[in-house]
Amino acid sequence: MLPEVILFDAGGTLVLQSASAISHQLSYPIDEAAAFEAHYRSMHAYARRRLTGVDDGWAWWQLHYFTALGVPDPDLAGERINNGFGLWFHPIAGTIQAVAELSKAGIRTAVLSNSDGSVTDSLSRAGFDGLFEMVLDSHDLGVSKPDPAIFRLALERMQVPPSRAWYVGDSIFHDVGGAATAGLARAILVDPLDLHDHYHDRIRSVAEMPDLIDGLGSAGVLRS
């Protein structure tokens, strides 16, 4: 059954940190392709630690990310970019068009993000302005993923039952785990590097979502 609503994570799902902006702030050259890979490998490692009950906080993710990029003093890099505040404005290829196509197909869309109060401005800067029915930030809601309460709060605001909603995100712990616990009909993992081959409901990019909705999955939209 097709969803009435698709909720999206933001960072790693719709946008990434701007490699050029980080390069400028750190005075260190960062390649965009390298930053793309570092994001997903770091999120994979971070989520796996969280699944084992280890919670080192977001600083651990940042340390892993900047270490992978070869940044000097990676333990200080997060502080130097103010923990990434306002830097998540690089749109992932094909995502803007995909969200627009979903809306044209009659699917309601919204964003539910663990963020720091900047996600609305970041998405607007990335080119998503006006595309979503709602943009909900954990900083404003007072609760974060994977707590099922944040998913239920979003759906209550949209007046949609969990059985009519999907969630799409890049963290097997925060996004997939949280959405499943909250009872959403489907939790889809963004996994462009094929790091989660144990999880069947995966896409490489949000750009694949219109084909999934249209039932045109013969090109490998879902992988096992």
Description:
The protein folds into two domains: 5-15 and 88-219, HAD superfamily/HAD-like (Rossmann fold); 18-84. It has a six-stranded parallel beta sheet, sandwiched between helices. Strands 2-3 form a two-stranded antiparallel ribbon. It starts with a strand and ends in an 11-residue tail after the last helix. It is built from ten helices and eight strands. Helices cover 42% and strands 13% of the residues. The protein is globular. Helix 2 (32-51) packs antiparallel against helix 3 (58-68) and helix 3 (58-68) packs across helix 4 (74-80). The chain has 224 residues and is α/β, with parallel strands linked by helices.
Topology:
Layout: E1 5-8, E2 15-16, H1 19-26, H2 32-51, H3 58-68, H4 74-80, E3 90-91, H5 95-104, E4 108-113, H6 119-126, E5 134-137, H7 138-141, H8 148-158, E6 165-169, H9 172-181, E7 186-190, E8 202-203, H10 209-213
Helix pairs in contact: 2-3, 3-4
Low-confidence stretches: 216-224
Q: Name the strands of the widest sheet in spatial order.
A: 5-4-1-6-7-8
Instruction: Just name the CATH architecture of the largest domain.
Output: 3-Layer(aba) Sandwich
Rg of Cα set:
17 Å
Q: How many domains make up the 3D coordinates?
A: 2
Briefly note the CATH topology name of the largest domain: Rossmann fold
**Helix count from the secondary structure assignment:** 10
CATH superfamily of the largest domain: HAD superfamily/HAD-like
Helix and strand content put the structural class at alpha/beta
Top CATH class of the largest domain: Alpha Beta
Shape call: globular
Helix content: 40-55%
Order of H and E elements: EEHHHHEHEHEHHEHEEH
Largest sheet: 6 strands, parallel
- The count of DSSP E runs of length 2 or more, i.e. the number of strands, is 8
